[in-house]
Amino acid sequence: MREDLLYFIWRHNKLPTEQLCTGNGEPIVIKAPGTQNRLAGPDFFNAKVEIDGQLWAGNVEMHLKSSDWYVHHHETDENYDNVILHVVWEDDIAVFRKDGSQIPTLEVKQYVADQLLNGYQNLMNNSRTKFISCEKDVRQVDSFVMENWLHRLYIERLEHKSKLIWELLDASKNDWEAVLFMLLAKNFGSKVNGPYFMERARQLDFSIVRKTTNEPLQLEALLFGHFGLLQVDDCIDSYYLQLKKEYGYLQRKFDLDIPSSKPEFFGLRPMNFPTIRISQLVNLYAGSHNFFSKLMDLNTLEGIYQSFEICAGPYWEEHYTFGKVSKKRMKKLSKRFIDLIVINTLVPLKFCYAKHLGRDWNEDLITLVSALGKEDNSVIKNFDKIGLKAQNALESQAKLELFTNYCSQNKCMQCAIGTQLLNRNT
């Protein structure tokens, strides 16, 4: 049993309207349940409840047991002074306000239908053995409800991604170009090296990148060196030695720190080797100015693909690592890789930038992300198996949000899918 069931019961009017009484026997009539509060403070604001013939307007607090009021120290918190009703599963103790007046308590366990309780327990118990608790019944959810819920989940995912962007923007003193570079570095590092690339990018003054964009050799040396790729033992390759010499000069000039670790190669496909990705990142920025502004002005996938139509440098056509020759092949950014950049960096940045400027962001971004193919990972594959096939990147992102922040945490009663399923037969 969790408090979220109490929220569901109260929000969806699952209590008999003519039989309710407080613990002291006073009749209760619920006129309006109020608005659920998901932040700090009472659980429902602006409720209207008639108690023993007297209409009260105020807040409602909910707990599994009445005594939880004191466990959570609400008796000393002024935010709870306007609580007009305490709704609990079990009324085990009388609860009083700071002024000594008793708060009316409604014990709901005696009023909840067995059918509802059984449905809730089945939903919760399935979470231990299933991919998601509702996987057997989820296809019965109304398509309109599902579509709207996925759109809302996608916006939630954008909001979660925005937290990092706002943090980076604050740390860089509102340098949007620097934020773009850090996020791109994370993307180019992919899952294995992304955190390392991000950390190194945060430690690099972006003004140095700006100063070297017109000098390709310097920019190569700067990024290869700063990202820990110029620490190869016994390498006598002329290109490697040239980069290492140039990086030594840049270290002294800009007082750069020496990397204490290296990116990983093990377990990666050659096209994802950090050497290839850094060279591609170099060529993305070589000779480029105001890259952030250019990307913010692009609203079509065609224009975005053109902006990222780059490949690793000539040396890397016959190499994957320094000094080891391989079969000649151009190392272009794949369409799938660019799609991931759009999903994980470009759209969240556009979302934040529009908010920063006070502009409407909704329609263009939804159109853009809906035009991208769905992601390919284990979570999305599992959703496909139970009949919830993602049609595009918006739906796959929404389902990642659903799985991560709802299904995995058993927040079925905060999910539009779970609440509709529980509502069906109650």
TrEMBL record:
Domain of life: Bacteria
Pfam families: DUF2851
InterPro entries: DUF2851
Protein name listed in UniProt: DUF2851 family protein
